[in-house]
Specification:
The protein is α/β, with parallel strands linked by helices. It has a single domain, classed as Class I glutamine amidotransferase (GATase) domain (Rossmann fold), CATH 3.40.50. It is built from five helices and twelve strands. The mean pLDDT is about 95.
Length: about 280
Amino acid sequence: MKPIELLLQTTIEPTANDWHIGRFSMLRDYLAALTAADGSRLFNVTARDRDPVGEPDSVLSSLDRSKYDELWLFAVDTGNGLDDADREGILRFRERGGGIMITRDHMDLGCSICNMGSIGAAHVFHTHNIDGPLPPPDDRDTTYIGWPNFHSGANGDFQSVDAELPVHPVMRDVQYLPAHPHEGAVVAPHADSAARVIATGKSLASGQRFNIAVAFEPSAKAGPAIAESTFHHFADYNWDPGRGSPDFVTEAPGGSLPRTPQAMASVQRYVRNLALWLAGRNTIV
């Protein structure tokens, strides 16, 4: 069976002091090294930042005509990361059966993904897609960051997560994920019966439970998709804080994840499950 073509892409131009695609190198290398039972490579991985902002991205805007089977989109922009043509290309890609994982972070970070049908509606931001009064902040330590900012732990530590029943294939044998001081908010849109919450976490600040991942089951009209609460579940800095971060990250890092093999194995299992499920493959080894 030929390798799955997987695109890892950010919504920013290459920028050294930001969450550029090079800061997801451990994810890229792990996926690229995965093999099937016969020793063949499971994935061909392409990792890139977007083209210059202000015009359509050459890949995203024509994604439906590309070689790719799935897209992992890291929305790390402040609102201008996607052109209308990019959003349309991504939606056409899903309509032709492509698998999509879209993730963001706290407050309005990554809000350029809002206007993308149900997948966009699954992401709730500080000033976008929110219905009703703005909830109070959850993370009380970094006071300049407002809701959503669920505090699951320090960067470089791990958090315990719960798989919602029935256990989704993406969550099979997953008990731990990377922690982050201020995760974003995702919901299952009421208007889409294909969507459901598949994983939750618990805030260390308030004790509140929050959604980590929402799955959209594939249909004849759309491919599978995942809305994820934070790109920090996939970043080098969260897998190993020794890899460094942009200088605007001010919280003291932890470091329990790279020192705990069981937790790291769970993180890698999540990534593998996610990549296979988005491609329509069986996640059981």
